[in-house]
Amino acid sequence: MRAVVQNDKSRAWVAKADDRGRARVAKADDRGRARVAKTDDRSRARIAKTAAATTALALAALLTGCAGDPAPAPAQGGPARPLDPRARQAAEHARLAAAARRWGLERTPLTPPAPPAEKPRITPRDGFEVDGQEEENLPPVFTTVPTRQKVVFLTIDDGAEKDPAFLRMMSELKVPYTAFLSNYVIEDDYGYFRRMQAQGVTLNNHTLTHPYLPGLSYEEQRDEICGMQTVMKKQFGKAPTVFRPPYGNYNGDTLRAAKECGIKYAPIWDEEVFVDHWEYRDWDRRLHPGDIVLTHFRGRDDWNGTMVDDMRNFLDKVTREGYAVARLEDYL
Ligand SMILES: [Zn+2]
């Protein structure tokens, strides 16, 4: 019951933020004056601003609830007109910039390109295939999605830490990510992950109990993977098609069992980010277009910081190096 209430609250919060973001900007006259009008659900007050140059700042101030100009003047000249695309973009950028400052980021995360019209063909990373890979059409294990776009994909594993601030941060910053969940650490609070799912995050399979899969028989591996499929279908409404073997360890039986459980992809990762450092699979110790980045749902119990600190470490480097964070499922 508690989870449902929190879920509703969180949705209400998102809806309210959206309403606030639905500010409207209309070009006023040929002298370049802009009029900014904002419709508020409660007061229906309209605010007009005259200087085009201050539009973005004014919007940012409105959206953070710290407007320096407290006296909204009644708008003149009828109802606000629809926002033109450039103004809409500026308003959204101002909102994101304000959120980035609030969460202590060095700079505003970059907006990812539109999802590819044609999905890339995903093949196993060289050396990561198993016997029978192609003949049996087994799920590919890969660390990077083939793309030339400067995007990386954020994946977060296990599910031990359930930090509400993390959910707020990611939703305010609109950073997409994918969660790989293991039942033994999420079963005490499925509601947290339902809230995550309601924010558009895809929840994927990371086994029931997080074992070292190659040490298990085929049947045992199948029980771990199919068992988690059943849990996820029951708790989250659908069985995933994406699975990550614990520790990134697998053998032929793992991929065969995964396929039997309905899995199509087995992404692992090229970089791993922690609160205070990064680790790299490749010798060049760099991000590459399409890289999959791993981190974990961990907090102060395990790490020298929170999920929010971890995300700051992730986003600051990614943005500094000119990468946007894209949604993995958009490329699969
Ligand atoms: Zn794990």
Automatic annotation (TrEMBL):
Domain NodB homology, chain residue ranges per copy: 150-332
Biased composition (Low complexity): 70-81, 96-109
Range of residues in the leader sequence: none
Pfam families named in the record: Polysacc_deac_1
UniProt-listed InterPro entries: Glyco_hydro/deAcase_b/a-brl, NODB_dom, Polysacc_deacetylase_ArnD
Composition bias type Basic and acidic residues, residue spans: 83-95
PANTHER family in the record: GLYCOSYL TRANSFERASE-RELATED, SECRETED PROTEIN
Name of the protein in question: NodB homology domain-containing protein
Organism in which the protein naturally occurs: Streptomyces rubradiris
